[in-house]
Amino acid sequence: MMQSVDLLVHSASQLCVVPGPAGPQRGRELGTLGLIEDGTVAVQDGRIVATGPTAELRARYTARHTLDAHGRCVIPGFVDPHTHLPWYGDRANEFEQRLAGASYMEIMAAGGGIMSTVRQTRSATLEALVADNLPRLARMLRHGTTSAEAKTGYGLETAAELKQLEAIVALIERQPVELTATFLPAHAVPAEYQGRTEAYVELVIAEMLPAAAKWMAGRGVRLYCDVFCEEGVFDLAQTRRILEAARALGFGLKLHADEFAGLGGTSLAVELGAVSADHLVQTPPADIAALGRGRTVAVSLPGTPFGLAHRDYTPAGAILNAGGALALATDCNPGTCWCESMQMVIALACRYQGLTQAQALAAATLNAAHAIGRGDEIGSLETGKQADLLILDVADYRQLGYRFGANLVHTVVKRGHVLE
Amino acid sequence: MMQSVDLLVHSASQLCVVPGPAGPQRGRELGTLGLIEDGTVAVQDGRIVATGPTAELRARYTARHTLDAHGRCVIPGFVDPHTHLPWYGDRANEFEQRLAGASYMEIMAAGGGIMSTVRQTRSATLEALVADNLPRLARMLRHGTTSAEAKTGYGLETAAELKQLEAIVALIERQPVELTATFLPAHAVPAEYQGRTEAYVELVIAEMLPAAAKWMAGRGVRLYCDVFCEEGVFDLAQTRRILEAARALGFGLKLHADEFAGLGGTSLAVELGAVSADHLVQTPPADIAALGRGRTVAVSLPGTPFGLAHRDYTPAGAILNAGGALALATDCNPGTCWCESMQMVIALACRYQGLTQAQALAAATLNAAHAIGRGDEIGSLETGKQADLLILDVADYRQLGYRFGANLVHTVVKRGHVLE
Predict the structure, then answer these.
(1) Chain A closest CA to B308's CA: distance in Å?
(2) Is the same domain home to B48 and B70?
(3) A35 & A170 share domain
(4) Alpha-carbon B126 to chain mean position
């Protein structure tokens, strides 16, 4: 008895199912890709109803729509669990100034750096902010990202931070990449609070978090709260206060930690049950060990040291050896790393963090899904999960990372819809 | 009186004309982009007949076909003056073995390394070799490369080297990216000549070069001859003998030099009037100075140190300070650097070689054209040159290099044909 389904993606040279993990604990089992040669996926109502050998599935299913993936491999859609969308404008001029020899301090003194993006984002209308970010999401999708995280943090005042949240909602409605929203009012100390970090932390706790919590309740959107815990920005005690206040208001937690200095943020993230701790370049051994004991996913952002031409990357091997779960993300932002492509991130992680292609792929899909709390819904091609998948232009998933710079995505399928 | 032309690409936010240089001597003047805001290009019979402000050109020309580049910048098509196309197969498995900890020697002992590609290329039929390389060229084109160099060097025996030349001719006929052909029988010492490098050099000079010269005359294809001058491969004296023999037979000259050790190859290239010296990572000061005195273009291949996760890159600043002409290329090959994208190369050159976006763009277009002897035909948007141009998805050329990992090409125009 043949069953009819909406879509069969059939005859893939490899179907990378990425089997198993239902939570971060199991998400740690990197490098255990479930590979089906000559594989097929059956999709109904935007969800996967079966995966298996082509001969078997073609005997069981007929489909209203079929995609022939002969000679091509099929993998889960990439999940990008750390981006700084939505922002307004760009800083290509600063990049040029740096290349021409200007120092960071000279650029800051001329009004550059993050405050330049804050000014541009504050003064943009909601509609302009949304329009400026649609091409970025389209580019992410073309390069295979089917779900991503998006953050505030370029408002740094209540109304502008809420405008960024509204922009995220509008972007969710207007294009296919699913977005998980994070509230990051403690991304930097705004110019008007320079030298008064404590006063800004008070504003975040007393006004901004409650306003976002109210917005969250009204909008029915689940929010994470994040803090940039870094030397010269928010210290560990300030970070703890903000995150504890956020947790009490019902936010999930994430954390920027150890990008330039290890302040203990990663251990704090584990202690507070944060879904992820992100950057983790200068992470001290005690914090790496903490990752092995908790459920917090380590999110590595190798595009950022690359973007800055720095030499230190996330100690991925040490994190895996300690039993930590590792995910990859772009950190897409207009200052240090304007990169929409998870393929680029995989190429960096293989070269500079020693991940095999299988480890990098799991880190860019299933573990990345866990890093935004969605490991049960997306990130692998298992029955019941959303049908978010990529047909690559290559027959072997191991071409990812090995090749770099060019887009290897042939077709994107999001919730069962064939997009390109 | 309105003049009718085939195509007007109009209203570009920036038209990057890259003015002036007619030869390598003038090609050195990097960083002097000619930028026209709200610019238009008029094209007739595949050639540029005018560039200028949109208002001016729209008053002078009507066109059978128009492309609106509003909000987008227009630049010359990228020229990639150093690739190792055509080869057969891939070495993704070796990349995986390296990441899993295998040493270079272990991989070589298991039959890996360049000899793996040589075996695959030798045993491929001409038709299979052509078919294997068409997708690579399509990917290059999608990422903006409109002309490239292609090499032999995976045959390492007369018949297989000539088969690679035939494949280049077939690829020229079957797709739009123009290819300049280079004969590189001295790319490596083949397995059957291990320990007998001198005997292989004799074979190259006595049999292979004359066979290729005869092929060149019969086919009417201009060939360059290239040698991999490197420690443990071909030394300076062997390189000189091969290049002098090639020059006497009518080949143009190019040279792989200083990738891992500086043997004096760059000075030799200048002395012999080679059109380019390529790699130039460990180039000694005397060789850098020689570049300032000659017409040989220094071709930097930053994708290769990146591909190998090495830390040393071409000393671009020293070359420019010495008065040398600098070009960029991908080195696209299946071993150290499988990268089809000149945008990726620009991103690397800005970060690791300190080029400004303007310098990198000139190096990836006009100077790259000079590095394959075609600076009079392609590489800039000047009247009389081929209409090879790109409409980018961004309004400012300085987004190149600043952004990385994602493809910023919107439309490719090759010889006046709108390709995508």
Answers:
(1) 7
(2) yes
(3) no
(4) 23
| Measured torsion, CA atoms of residues B33, B39, B45, B46, in degrees rounded to the nearest 10 | 40
Choosing among B80, B87, B91, B99, which should be mutated to test the A contact, i.e. which has the most A CBs within 10 A? B99
The rounded distance, in Å, linking the Cα atoms of B417 and A378 is 42
The pLDDT of residue A33 is 65
Q: What is the pLDDT of residues A46-75, one digit of tens each?
A: 999 999 999 999 999 999 999 999 999 999
Can you give B65-84 as a three-state secondary structure string? EEEECCCCEEEECEEECCCC
**Residue B59 belongs to a domain with what CATH number?**
2.30.40.10
A189 and A174, same structural domain? yes
- Of A319, A267, A350, A333, residue with least CA distance to A82: A333
CA–CA gap between residue B209 and residue B256 (Å, rounded): 17
Q: In this structure, what token pair is assigned to residue A408?
A: 């290897």
Domain that holds residue B383: 3-77+379-418
Do A400 and A275 reside in the same domain of the chain? no
**CB pair distance less than 8 Å for B143 and A406:** yes
Instruction: Give pLDDT tens digits for A284-320.
Output: 999 999 999 999 999 999 999 999 999 999 999 999 9
- CA dist., res. A46 & res. A8, Å (int): 12
Rg (CA), chain A: 21
What's the domain count of chain B? 2
**Tens of pLDDT, residues B84-122:** 999 999 999 999 999 888 887 788 788 889 999 999 999
Q: Which residues of chain B neighbour A404 with C-beta distances below 8 Å? A: 303, 306-307, 338-339, 344
Contact state of A139 with B406 under an 8 Å Cβ cutoff: yes
The answer to whether the CB of A209 falls within 8 A of the CB of A247 is no
Q: How far apart are CA A60 and CA A62, in angstroms?
A: 7
pTM of the model: 0.96
- Among B33, B80, B95, B400, pick the best mutation site for testing chain A contact (most A Cβ within 10 A): B95
Cβ of B356 and A99 within 8 Å?
Answer: yes
Q: What is the mean pLDDT of chain A?
A: 94
Residues A155 and A256 in one domain: yes
Ranges assigned E (strand) in B152-272: 178-186, 223-227, 252-257
Domain shared by B72 and B138, yes or no: no
Whether residue B393 sits in one domain with residue B282: no
Chain B residues close to A100, C-beta within 8 Å: 356
Q: Give tens-digit pLDDT for A246-260.
A: 999 999 999 999 999
Tokens of A112: 């550059």
Give the whole-angstrom CA distance, residue B46 versus residue B40.
Answer: 15
Residue A183 sits at φ, ψ, to 5 deg, of -100, 120
Chain A touched by B104 (CB under 8 Å): no
Say if residue A68 is in the same domain as residue A148. no
- Separation between Cα atoms, residue A50 and residue A43, nearest integer Å: 7
A92 and B306 in contact by Cβ < 8 A? Answer: no
User: A176 CB near a chain B CB, below 8 Å?
Assistant: no
Q: Do B95 and A398 touch (CB under 8 A)?
A: yes
Structure tokens at B247: 């020059």
Chosen domain end from A351, A370, A389? A370
Q: Cα separations (Å) of A354 from A320, B57, B356?
A: 11, 54, 30
CATH number of B350's domain:
3.20.20.140
Q: How many CB pairs under 8 A join A and B?
A: 127
C-alpha to C-alpha distance for B412 and A220, rounded to whole angstroms:
44
